[in-house]
Structures are given as structure tokens and as C-alpha cells.
Amino acid sequence: MQLSKKIVVLGHFGVGKTSLIRRFVENSFSDNYKVSIGVHITKKVVEFEVEDTMSLILWDLEGTDEIKTIRDAYLLGTHGVVFVFDVTRPSTFQSLNTDLEIIKSKLPTTPLFVVGNKVDLVVVSELETLFKENNIKTNFLTSAKTGDTVNDMFFELAKLIK
Ligand SMILES: Nc1nc2c(ncn2[C@@H]2O[C@H](COP(=O)(O)OP(=O)(O)OP(=O)(O)O)[C@@H](O)[C@H]2O)c(=O)[nH]1
Ligand SMILES: [Mg+2]
User: Fold this and answer.
1) 7 - beta bridge partners?
2) Which stretches within 4-149 are classed as H helix?
3) Are 105 and 33 in contact (CB under 8 A)?
């Protein structure tokens, strides 16, 4: 039997939500920025072991700087959440803890990963200091461009949901 689980990827504008999903599903990347509108859904099967697989139904939501405005209909029946921010743009993580509280109030028991994306553009040791100072905790630091830990991130979330 194949399990099917809904993963919602959300965050502010242009943080790399679509790019992370594209890297995971197609193993490709583009520097061109095309703003997402509404929601785009794709499927990817992950394999834990032979004959032990899970279908991830990936919901790529349009960006919003106002997390509270995300439609509840998009979140219905969600098994896992990926909250993405852009490590090069403080405006996308300044309100991180408030944003996370809003998501947790909508989805109190759903596994949630906090992901800092675009690490190819920064020095990771400097980031760690910045995050400590701002009380920011991440589950993964990724780069959709290089592919750095993108697969691991989705795979770990799938394992957690399982
Ligand atoms: N250098 C670098 N650029 C990235 C990375 N991920 C995304 N980008 C670029 O950032 C821009 C926005 O990427 P998207 O994936 O469209 O971001 P998004 O979060 O889906 O944007 P919205 O849907 O409009 O909210 C594009 O120009 C991407 O090429 C990354 O890991 N590294
Ligand atoms: Mg997008």
C-alpha cells in the first residue's frame, strides 16, 4: 500500500519555495524569477525501503508577507509544513517566531520544518551568529541552486510524518 501525504510549502515572497520543490522533484534550477499565483501541486514518490514508499503531494503556495492571510482551505488536511525564508533577506525572517505561531495556531499538531534557503549566497558561520542573536532556530539550511540538503530535508519530513 502506498501512503499519500500532503506537504505545504509556504513563506514570504521569493524565498525559493517553487525552486526547492523543482530541485526536489526535477533536480533542476532556474535563476529566472516567476512569481507564483495561487497554488501549484506536484507529486513525488519517496522510497524508504523496497516496497516501502510514500507519495508526497507538494503544495507550492504563492508567497505572502502576511502569513495570517493564508487561506485555511490550502491548509486543510496537511500532514507536514515547510516554512521557508531567505537567509539573504532579513525581512523574510524578522517576524519568524510570530509567523510560526500563526502557522501553529492553524495546524497545532502538524510536523513543521523551518528552512533557511539560498545558503549558497552567504557564509554559514556568520549566519549562525546572526540567528543566535535573533533567537532563530532552523531545521535545515538549504540551497535550491546547488541542491544542498534539499532532498534530505524533504526525506526527513517524510520520515517524521510516517
Ligand atoms: N542563489 C539562489 N537563488 C535562489 C535559490 N532559491 C531560489 N532562488 C532564486 O530566488 C528567486 C525566487 O525563487 P522562487 O522559487 O520563485 O521563490 P518563491 O518563494 O516560489 O516565490 P513566490 O512564489 O513568488 O513567493 C528566483 O530568481 C530563484 O532563482 C537558492 O537556493 N539560491
Ligand atoms: Mg513560488
Assistant:
1) 58, 80
2) 17-26, 72-75, 96-106, 124-133
3) no
**Is the C-beta atom of 78 inside 6 A of ligand 1?**
no
Q: Does 36 sit in the ligand 1 pocket, CB within 6 Å?
A: yes
64 alpha carbon – ligand 1 mean position (Å):
14
pTM over cut 0.70? yes
Reported as a single tens digit per residue, the pLDDT across 83-135 is 999 999 999 999 999 999 999 999 999 999 999 999 999 999 999 999 999 89
Q: Which residues surround ligand 2, an ion (CB under 5 A)?
A: 17-18, 36
For residue 33, the one-letter residue type is: Y
User: Residue for cell digits 549566497?
Assistant: 121
Q: How far is CA 15 from the centre of its chain?
A: 9
Whether 44 and 114 have beta carbons less than 8 Å apart is answered as no
| Domains within the chain, CATH numbers bracketed | 3-161 (3.40.50.300)
CB-neighbour burial class of residue 49 (10 A; exposed 0-12, middle 13-18, buried 19+): exposed
